[in-house]
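Tip: read the tokens left to right.
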């Protein structure tokens, strides 16, 4: 029984990981630790050792779920690397490794807006280092549902109102998921209105507008009228009349 691996699995359970995730992570890390026992000490592992182990995982034949033999796909191999990285994150927090492996396993990468990983505004996140990624790994192109019957079935699915709206929005307009999820009610115009969405005829005049803050003026700046007593100000018409009289009286004395 590996003491560090056992403590790490206990940490995953205590941190709220699902039993399935902890079991899969443990199975993959156990194979890695067994492989390390035959090659080197896992505390002294470098990025080259992880790359060599990734090639071993990718080349080892397995029996797939359909019963046919084959090798693991690039996405599956990546999941095995993620499990090992999670183990080293825990080990690095306890100062167990003697190398800087953890900092070399990932790198910062910027995903531009409009890409599947970048969403609407773009994002910078940590990804696996290039040496730990498969050569064939890349951005997958969107898959079109070729079966017309399957596309028609999307319109007959029994879904909640929100999910129904999102499915219709995506299939009708073709916008991306990252563009549809942050939408607010103020961003939409429903045309003539829809009773299903609880919008009446006035919805045809709905337009997105920016929220404006109305700042309350300080008390000292509310009554700026020369020659007018605040207590005798009265209503607006009375204040204007008093102000006009004050200006007419001061007119002959102006230089």
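Filled-in amino acids:
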């Amino acid at each position: 029984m590996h003491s560090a691996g056992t403590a790490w699995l206990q940490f995953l359970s205590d941190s709220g990981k699902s039993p399935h995730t902890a079991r899969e992570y443990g199975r993959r890390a156990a194979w890695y630790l067994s492989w390390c026992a035959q090659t080197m000490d896992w505390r002294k592992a470098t990025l080259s050792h992880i790359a060599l182990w990734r090639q071993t995982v990718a080349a080892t034949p397995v029996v797939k779920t359909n019963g046919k033999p084959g090798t693991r796909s690039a996405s599956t191999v990546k999941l095995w690397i993620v499990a090992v990285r999670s183990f080293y994150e825990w080990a690095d927090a306890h100062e167990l490794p003697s190398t800087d492996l953890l900092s070399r396993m990932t790198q910062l990468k910027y995903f531009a807006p409009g890409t599947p990983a970048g969403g609407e505004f773009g994002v910078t996140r940590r990804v696996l280092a290039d040496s730990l990624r498969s050569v064939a790994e890349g951005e997958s192109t969107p898959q079109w549902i070729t079966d017309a019957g399957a596309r028609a079935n999307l319109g007959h699915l029994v879904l909640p109102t929100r999910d129904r709206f999102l499915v219709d929005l995506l299939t009708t307009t073709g916008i991306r998921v990252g563009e549809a999820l942050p939408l607010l009610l103020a961003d939409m115009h429903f045309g003539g209105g829809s009773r299903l969405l609880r919008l009446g005829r006035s919805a045809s005049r709905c337009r997105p507008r920016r929220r404006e803050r109305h700042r309350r003026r300080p008390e000292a700046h509310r009554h700026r009228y020369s020659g007018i007593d605040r207590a005798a100000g009265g209503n607006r018409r009375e204040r204007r009349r008093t102000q006009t009289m004050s200006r007419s009286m001061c007119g002959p004395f102006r230089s």
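The beta strands are 62-63, 69-70, 106-111, 123-128. The chain has a mean pLDDT of 75.
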